[in-house]
Amino acid sequence: MSVDDHQHPKADVALRVDALESLLTEKGLIDPATVDEIVRYYEHDVGPLNGAKVVARAWVDPQYKARLLQDATAAIGELGFAGPQGEHMVVVENTAAVHNVVVCTLCSCYPWPVLGLPPSWYKTPAYRSRVVREPRAVLMEMGLDLPPSVEIRVWDSSAEVRYLVLPERPAGTESLTEEQLAGLVTRDAMIGTAKAQTSAGNRDG
Amino acid sequence: MPMNGIHDMGGMHGFGKVHVEPNEPVFHERWEARVFGMVQSLRGNIDAGRHAIERLDPVAYLQNGYYGRWLAAFERSLIGLGVLRPIELEERMREAPHVAPQSEARKTSSWRPASRSHVRKVDSRPAFSCGQMVVTRNHQPAGHTRLPAYARCRRGTIQRVHPAMVFPDDHAHDRGENPQHLYTVKFSGEELWGDAAEPGTFVHLDLFESYLNSANGEGS
Q1: d(C-alpha B55, C-alpha B59), whole Å
Q2: Residue B96's closest CA among A15, A131, A9, A171?
Q3: Which of A52, A91, A128, A179 is the most exposed place for a label (fewest CB within 10 A)?
Q4: Tens of each residue's pLDDT in chain B, 220 residues
């Protein structure tokens, strides 16, 4: 067994990573302050709230929505969101007849600038193996019961294109502001394993 | 190393239900955050990085978890590049390395999340156009590829023509970027999964031109 195939006991892995970080710092390959900043950025500055702002804007501004569906990378960039794993964005729109859901079966590709880093379930063998083959069953298990008449489109992110689902605007939200609408848009609604909420609260993260 | 690997999971049976952890943190352990930060700060060849993960022992692949895979692949890459010797890491672990905690004052970083386009200019025109029926090749390279096994020898329809992008199958092995046209191809559930398909379901894949052949005649 080679060194990189080791099963690291849980207690050892933290020590191993500390050892690696101290070695790479000494070799001048990394700067711990940069590692701190990257971690801070992905823990605090980027997440599904970015994508929710994109969706809410598309709900209230038909011209923005048209640009978003035409050239998502540029339209998302208009709101200031860009960066690694968001270089080539495509937005797919849910309607009464079509539901979209996103996966990466080969690794765990995910649109970081608009959704942050992926949740654990998105990276599991269960989700990656099953949602291409039995999307209706997987969505049902995750709480989304779609009628058989709704076409399901799965987007398996096999190259560098990243997908964001534009969920349907819930009925009865005509009086809400753009900011209030963003509060209805959950991470899972933008992956496609849920619908947008009809009232704020009970967010999935 | 043949790449009919454990990472190529689309359509596999046996992994059970999808368990959702409510309100989970971005990182569950500090070491996961440090691995992520180190890999992102170096940000090498992403295709080679993915291939390093694919080459892990399949049992380790399943047991290590997402950031455990990143760690193992990162070590493998550093050793491969000659910047880290395996013995160094073992020795440093025995020395109980001191890493300053994040709360300690450090100089600030100028790091910003920089975009890095994969689009490249090519001289040729796209061989396929929207609406055209194509069939995927029985493409089984010995190394990296982004054509999943479940979509080999399957008929689909070109849905979108993307700009040409870096070809991962070559780039992962340092054979150059060799950009190719990229297409979103739509496959029916029946074409992919036969009698197990759920009705009214489709899968879209982003596939490079050399994965595809023209399919003459009526499609499935």
Answers
A1: 11
A2: A15
A3: A179
A4: 557 899 999 999 999 999 999 999 999 999 999 999 999 999 889 999 999 999 999 999 999 999 999 999 999 999 999 999 989 999 999 987 766 655 455 667 889 999 999 999 999 999 999 999 999 999 988 899 999 999 999 999 999 999 999 999 999 999 999 999 999 999 999 999 999 999 999 999 999 999 999 997 544 4
Residues B1 and B65 in one domain: yes
For the entire predicted model, the pTM comes to 0.94
Catalytic residue among A107, A129, A158, A199: A107
Which residues of chain A have a CB within 8 Å of the CB of B95?
A: 19
Whether B182 maps to a domain, the answer reads yes
Closest CA to A134 of A118, A146, A123, A119: A146
Q: Per the CATH hierarchy, to which homologous superfamily does domain A48-191 belong?
A: Nitrile hydratase alpha /Thiocyanate hydrolase gamma (3.90.330.10)
Residue A109 a catalytic site member:
yes
Q: Kindly tell me the number of DSSP H helices and DSSP E strands found in chain A.
A: 10, 4
User: Domain check: are B46 and B99 in the same one?
Assistant: yes
Q: What is the CATH classification number for the domain harbouring B144? A: 2.30.30.50
Q: Is A199 a catalytic residue?
A: no
